[in-house]
Amino acid sequence: PGAAPGQESSTERRVRVPPGVTVFDSASWNGIAIDSTCGGHGTCHKCKVQVSGSSPITRHDARTFSASELESGWRLACLVQATRDLEVLVPPLTTRPKAATVGVGRQVILRPAVQKRYVELEEPTLEDQATDLDRLLAAITDLEPRPDLHALRRLPKVLREGDFKVTAVIVDEELVDVEPGDTTATRCAIAFDLGTTTVVATLLDLVTGTPVAVASMLNRQQPFGGDVISRISATMMDPDALGRLQTAACETLAELAAQVCAEAGVDPHAVYEVAIAGNATMTALVLGIDPEPLGVAPFVMTTALPPSVLAEDLHLGVHPRARAVFFPALGAYVGGDIVAGMLASGMDRDKRTRLFIDVGTNCEIVLSDGDRIVSTAAPAGPAFEGGAIRCGMRAADGAIETIRLGDTVELGVIGDVEPRGLCGSGLVDAVAELVKVGLLDASGRFVPEADAKEIAPALHDRLTMIGQERVFVLHRPTPGADPAECVVLSQRDVRELQFAKAAISTGWTLLLEELGLEHGDIAQVLLAGSFGSYLSAASAVRIGLVPKLPVLRIVAAGNVAGEGAKMALLSVRERAGAQALLEEVTYVELSDRPEFNDRFVEQLSFNGG
Ligand code: FES
């Protein structure tokens, strides 16, 4: 479903979110600020929005709104779920929050590394020849910044041009600039989720803690291959490729930075810090570090803790002394994006047993029992991104994303257009539904023709052949169209999905064993990332991609990597929390476990899970 909240009455946005996500989370994931002090827990009663159509009235709504307000659609945003297309009116913020809601309901007290202090200084005289710097530093009473050369070069001129009324810009306890007059109201940063496929930028107002613009685009490294392995291979085959990949990543970030600044009407020089959350390969490539050791056994990173660099060195076009900070990585395949995601989902703060799964070509899995945290990576292959699937495609217009089988076939298609193919969530749905109606057996084989007729009389004629292979027709462009022209699920596609899901479920099964836990101990499963968030929880449970739990315990977590990057910019304490995860989380290598193969074979079955 879509929600169309506007940040102000004059701004309209269309956004797409996973079904069942609250309006509050939908807005937050898309950079639209809604008033809140409780972080979406239904207790502050501040997240007032006006929703189209009729939505259930909770007791909190009844206590917050008058009868006529309820009648005209006013609800608390954190209690309304987007289960259909919604139009949502979001009033402008009434208060400047000292805390911001980020990630999976995390409340972040604002303590950015970027600080500004406005000072009015006494002008020097022959009796008072204190240096410009001493004069400035003496006026800043609560911080003791170290000056950098850029600031010193600007200091004499700016002081005198500004009649000794200036604003000191301090980033991470370093004086990086002085600006004439009082510029304290303008203090921005950009959070980047540097994905292998898609890159997302969020411009944050650090004064209020609110996102002011969001933009995304495909990573310009695409021509080098769709996944990290092909990009690493490119650097191994061509000595110039590393430089070109670095340039492509930097250009992507710079273009997005320009875009979000333009959208918000913010001078790019008011962006004093950026945070970049990416997997280990993306992080190495954007820094120009040779990624080859990440791609070959024993899969070693150059460093787990990349240093912060000047954004200027990455040509990001923001303030010349802005810093670009990175997240630490736990391993070659559990990178900074996952650490950012753990931060955003509070994996280290929650006492409950929680399982975090970022489903993708490389699937990262984290399990916490509230005390110990273990993580691993599972090579799931490209099936979820539509790779190696006969009619597979990315989640774009024309992709079938939901499927329900009954007497008819109900398809949900992105963009409400003619179906062209099947994206990852559609693939999971297709297999889960075919298992449910009995046309696929537990081993993942289509049942024999004769049985199909009896099991699903309304559907059995969709089971047909293309060449030597059995397929199930999901969509016929015209009645009687040749199966080769239809959108189908083939027997081989089912096998691909089986291998992908078995890799993932073997991962979490072994992590559960590592901590001596069982399925039932898990209080919450967080499905993260652009693909995981759109998966149907019921289908994921049915095929055993996630543990067999009530679907209410399975939660779409959204783009948690980007949310973690925001948190690192909003609070130095949260940033330190991300560093601490390096010590707290144990990375478990599973592929060399003797029990790995046995578990993998068990998990291939659709009765497994
Ligand atoms: Fe506090 Fe909704 S965010 S009640």
UniProtKB/TrEMBL annotation:
SUPFAM superfamilies in UniProt: 2Fe-2S ferredoxin-like (SSF54292), Actin-like ATPase domain (SSF53067)
UniProt domain 2Fe-2S ferredoxin-type: residue ranges: 1-94
Domain of life: Bacteria
InterPro entries: 2Fe-2S_ferredoxin-like_sf (IPR036010), 2Fe-2S_ferredoxin-type (IPR001041), ATPase_NBD (IPR043129), Beta-grasp_dom_sf (IPR012675), Corrinoid_activation_enz (IPR052911), Raco-like_middle (IPR041414), Raco-like_middle_sf (IPR042259), RACo_C (IPR027980)
Gene3D superfamilies: 3.10.20.30, 3.10.20.880, Domain of unknown function (DUF4445)
Pfam families given in the database record: Fer2, RACo_C_ter, RACo_linker, Raco_middle
Molecular function GO terms recorded: iron-sulfur cluster binding
Protein's name in the database: DUF4445 domain-containing protein
Provenance organism: Nocardioides flavescens
Lineage: Bacteria, Bacillati, Actinomycetota, Actinomycetes, Propionibacteriales
